Backbone:
């Protein structure tokens, strides 16, 4: 299943990871939280709807409809609307805050910690996520993700897919864009990274949207690497 | 030698570390680098002079004499002047770049990795350094410093002692200033942190400026903790 474009990976020094869906399983983690809070909603649908609100919210910031707003606050805005839609009216402010914090406690995919640990032995591994720094740091501590460095849209005050984010990774580490490889389970994220000169590795994550949804995980020939998971990516990069 | 102010540490969640001098030994690392390059200079004096150029350079940025400039570039400006003063004229550009990179390769004090690892078991541990993110990440990878998160003046675009840096740590983690403890080998850094409401831990590091210099490491009663090193700090905080 895996493939490596032989010209691609030779000069890579830094692996920059998308996080939501690529490293952690938001769908299952949110379903579990909703169930543990005994909310009277379909956990699958609730998780999907929360995540579906994400890109429209990001776009509002990108196009200036909203001032710069951290993901924690965007998640909360989406959640408040969602609770109304799903007719959940009994939650206290403290419970809403706790529920919104689920994004800090997302579980890693089964291969993530082993894959990252192996990749770290040869590369600098960092996040390049739209998640805010505190969210990503709390998640890493909770899930034992061994990042060398947490990079976030918060640092560049631009959200992916703004080129400032992809190019920002190269700038932070003083390397060329072609020495950075973006790793993601989303072809559009990788296409934007590639347009900035980064190498790209696709990770399938067919269950990202839960078992009720079909996800197209077919390879794209322009990616440097295609792999099913992070352990397979480590093997493909000889780690 | 160690003391803990009993009211102080109870609510602390995040330990934010000064890095140069507190976690890593810049003096010995630079001396070693200068000797390995066989520069015809007094390594002790060269290291002291390089570091002495640091605060004046930071002040130029703080007072607007210089636009926002990363530490890597400030270190290089100081180095260029220093090479002239010390009459080192034969270095090629590539060698100067390598020498300037020594700040990415500073060695930890003997107790740093053990102390941080123990502290990490109970607290979120992060840097709050004027060093740029890439420098701090490269240093952490090289010295195996197990940070949960790398915070830097680069994120806040303000240098310590600007309050935006100390308060920025609390903001990133969504906690109160009093839930953050600044750890440093410099009383002035801690005084500024305290003025922002942070708790403070002093670490002595009597050899910070090398054996030729006397450093006053006497306790200040306003610090929450006084400790000789990071292992002692871990013990003082029951880690």
Residues:
């Amino acid at each position: 299943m895996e493939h490596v474009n032989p010209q691609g990976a030779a000069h890579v020094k830094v692996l920059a990871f998308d996080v939501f869906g690529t490293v952690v399983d938001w769908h299952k983690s949110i379903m579990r939280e909703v169930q543990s809070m005994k909310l009277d909603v379909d956990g699958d649908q609730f998780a999907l709807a929360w995540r579906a609100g994400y890109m429209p919210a990001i776009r509002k910031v990108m196009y200036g409809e909203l001032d710069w707003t951290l993901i924690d606050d965007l998640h909360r805005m989406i959640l408040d609307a969602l609770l109304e839609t799903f007719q959940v009216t009994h939650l206290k402010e403290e419970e809403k805050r706790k529920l919104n914090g689920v994004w800090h406690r997302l579980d890693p995919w089964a291969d993530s910690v082993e894959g990252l640990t192996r990749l770290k032995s040869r590369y600098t591994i960092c996040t390049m996520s739209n998640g805010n720094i505190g969210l990503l740091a709390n998640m890493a501590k909770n899930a034992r993700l061994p990042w060398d460095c947490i990079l976030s849209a918060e640092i560049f005050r631009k959200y992916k897919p703004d080129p400032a984010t992809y190019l920002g990774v190269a700038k932070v580490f003083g390397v060329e864009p072609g020495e950075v490889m973006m790793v993601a389970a989303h072809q559009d994220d990788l296409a934007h990274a590639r347009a900035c000169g980064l190498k790209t590795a696709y990770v399938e994550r067919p269950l990202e949207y839960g078992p009720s949804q079909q996800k197209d995980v077919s390879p794209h020939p322009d990616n440097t690497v295609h792999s099913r998971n992070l352990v397979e990516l480590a093997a493909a990069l000889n780690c």
Residues 26-104 of chain A form a domain with the DNA polymerase; domain 1 fold (CATH 1.10.150.240).
